[in-house]
Design goal:
By secondary structure, the chain is mainly alpha-helical. It has 2 domains: 14-79, Arc Repressor Mutant, subunit A, CATH 1.10.10; 84-219, Four Helix Bundle (Hemerythrin (Met), subunit A). A hairpin with a 3-residue loop joins β1 (69-72) and β2 (76-79). The chain starts with 13 loop residues before the first helix and ends in a 6-residue tail after the last helix. It has helices at residues 14-30, 42-49, 53-66, 84-108, 111-124, 130-147, 151-161, 168-171, 175-191, 195-219, and strands at residues 69-72, 76-79. A two-stranded antiparallel ribbon has the order 1-2. α4 packs antiparallel against α7 (151-161) and α9 packs antiparallel against α10.
Length: 225
């Protein structure tokens, strides 16, 4: 999935510290380490990350807007109770926007850019380790998204990408094979300049990813009481 490089944000200024905190809280939620309804200990998290509580509080505001965290007056921040359909819906929306980008890219990609995508697909299938496949996957979809030549679409996709579960290549034994097959279908549609087919294949790629995300979270005990 084109959700992340797998690497967290770098330390640095306030914005990076806020991003670091948000990334870590998301990771803990979607790994099952933090469960639905559990209170987030801001002081302990700040100590663990070696940062002040201010970027933690700012990160929690962002995560509240994303629906990952819920603030309760005079009680604090708690992990929101997301349903399986919440996860599926997020991936479906991600797929709809990514599909629109692919539709535009089918018309815009130069022969050189198409070849670069084929090269990335080849490298993903050449025996690279799972972390490297995740990185190459991110780059594959990033190039398609930017080929849409729409700053608005890229901005929306950047927001959506931050809020999905990560580690598909490491957590799902069958995902690399499925992703490779899907990438070839996407490349075939782009090479044929078939905008409608590119959009359809990308939308299904993300929809299938949503089902796998639900399965992954099930195994990690995300919905266990």
């Amino acid at each position: 999935m084109p959700d992340s490089t797998g690497a967290g944000p770098r330390r640095g200024g306030p914005a990076n510290l806020k991003a670091l905190a948000a990334h870590e809280i998301r990771r803990r939620v979607f790994s099952g380490q933090l469960r639905a309804g559990e209170k987030i200990d801001q002081e302990a998290l700040a100590d663990e990350l070696g940062i002040s509580k201010l970027p933690i509080r700012e990160a929690l505001i962002t995560l509240d807007h994303e629906g990952v965290v819920e603030h309760i007056a005079r009680r604090g921040a708690f992990v929101a109770r997301m349903t399986r359909d919440d996860i599926r819906d997020h991936y479906r929306v991600f797929g709809l926007v990514s599909g629109l980008a692919a539709e535009r890219a089918a018309k815009n990609l130069s022969p050189e850019s198409l070849q670069a995508l084929h090269d990335l697909a080849d490298r993903m299938e050449s025996g690279a380790d799972r972390a490297e496949q995740e990185r190459l996957n991110f780059e594959f979809h990033r190039r398609i998204n930017y080929a849409a030549d729409s700053r608005r679409l890229v901005s929306i996709l950047g927001i959506l990408a931050k809020t999905v579960s990560h580690g598909f290549y490491e957590a799902h034994e069958d995902w690399p094979g499925k992703a490779h097959e899907d990438h070839r279908k996407i490349l075939n549609a782009l090479s044929a300049r078939s905008a409608a087919r590119a959009r359809s294949v990308v939308e299904k790629h993300f929809s299938d990813g949503g089902e796998r995300a639900v399965a992954l979270l099930e195994r990690q005990g995300f919905w266990d009481s």
